[in-house]
UniProtKB/TrEMBL annotation:
<dbReference type="InterPro" id="IPR010131">
    <property type="entry name" value="MdtP/NodT-like"/>
</dbReference>
<keyword id="KW-0564">Palmitate</keyword>
<keyword id="KW-1134">Transmembrane beta strand</keyword>
<keyword id="KW-0472">Membrane</keyword>
<dbReference type="Pfam" id="PF02321">
    <property type="entry name" value="OEP"/>
</dbReference>
<comment type="similarity">
    <text>Belongs to the outer membrane factor (OMF) (TC 1.B.17) family.</text>
</comment>
<feature type="signal peptide">
    <location>
        <begin position="1"/>
        <end position="21"/>
    </location>
</feature>
<keyword id="KW-0812">Transmembrane</keyword>
<dbReference type="GO" id="GO:0015562">
    <property type="term" value="F:efflux transmembrane transporter activity"/>
</dbReference>
<keyword id="KW-0732">Signal</keyword>
<dbReference type="GO" id="GO:0005886">
    <property type="term" value="C:plasma membrane"/>
</dbReference>
<keyword id="KW-0449">Lipoprotein</keyword>
<dbReference type="InterPro" id="IPR003423">
    <property type="entry name" value="OMP_efflux"/>
</dbReference>
<protein>
    <submittedName>
        <fullName>Secretion system type I outer membrane efflux pump lipoprotein NodT</fullName>
    </submittedName>
</protein>
Amino acid sequence: MACRKVLRRALLLAAVASQLAGCTVGPNYKPDHMSVPDAFTEAPHPATPEEIARTEAEMREWWAQFHDPLLNRLVDQALKGNYDLLIADQRIIAERAVREQAASAWYPQLDVDVGGGDNRYSTIVGNWPLRPNTPINRPQTGLMTYGASASWEIDAFGRIRREVEASERGIDASIEARRTVLMTMLSELAIDYMALRGVQLRLQIAGANVRNAQSEVDLTQRLYLQGVGTTLQTAQALSERDSEKATLEPLKTQASKIAHAIAVLLGDMPGDLKQTLETVPTDGKGSVRLPDLPRFPSTLPSLVLANRPDIREAERDYAAATARIGVAVAQLYPHFAIPLNFNPNASALHQLFEMNAMSWSLMMLASLPVMHGGRYTSQVVQARARAEASRLAYRKTVLNAFREVEDAMTSWQDDDRYVATLGTARTEAEQAADRARRLYKAGLSDYLNVLTTQRAALATEDREAMARTERLRDAVNLYIAMGAGWQGVALRDTSLPIDEAKQSILAKTFMR
């Protein structure tokens, strides 16, 4: 009879709870729409729909536009082994666990306990005169107990719902953060690879310069033996040769450091890729071949807004901060809970399950914050201020993204003209050096003219190699600024492997 009464009360409380849990306080999230321009001011021309469609397709694997098989292979390895990406995977796991932790408050919380032992009470504390069956008359007794305690918070004003909502937005933000890490890694890898090929080209140029300088040494020595040259000219030629040799070692050091950085990005030891990266691709003339320069990509500000993961992450952070306002506001409203305690006690095992040993309580509790010195209103103010800061951070992220695109477009176009100008200057400098060499060989010019024109030719050729490398870097920067690279890379399985065979029976039962 008593059990039926308890059951009826429990059903009644559950019905009341279902009626209470229907309100969600706090503001609902509304995206902050920024007005963006129709086109980028630094774009060479208005983008056509065909160009935009082409760029959107190329963005999925933009590194393939450089037509370098080794770069493609390195990217594939980095996507599997880069530690920054693996760390970002674990952060997604952690955010999903935070969401599950917040959602657990929706369900009844149940604990069971069992125990037994001896209790002894003080015999000098009690009521006088002594009455039968008081602890003073029987100071020592055995006690056996088992039971359960449960509580169920009724989410009457949506505090738990807002907590879960904020956690879900946190999951979204962690996914976008991983995409940002992915793009940063791809950017570093591609830029390091371009720099490595650029240094290798400069090493080849410097090696050719050393050989040319040695030829000048041989020429001055031969002319001196013929009575035409002087020891000063020979000394100048030797000094020029040794100066060119001195440029080799810093370039070799730079190439080694870049190779080490690329290996670490792939999750390998610094020296693992040394032999692979030292295999230099060449063109038909035997020169180091730099990766191909892609076509200039076309995009619109609205596409950048949709593609940039840092913008999407900032927007998700703003959504999470808005949900936390509701969490703070809910603290100002009444809290409803249903506590249940079931705790039979007896001195003998056979008595534990008798009706007289039963002890339980089941009720509905409501609490209303009345006076807390402004604590809860201060929490609401904090939550609103943090949400507004997140909104402003979102707007700042948008502006910085557009600035990066405009800067990258400017750099690409300016460096394109710079490379063309240096190419012309290199051709002219090589012609001047060749004429000076011929005139000197014929005895019609001083050797100083040879040194001056040769140094100018060598410096121009080296500057052109660096400019071509920088132009490739501009291409990488523009693709990254446009938010390219994550679209074609699926998220990995972000779940921790748990060996259920090693768990206890209770862990296997309640793990999920």
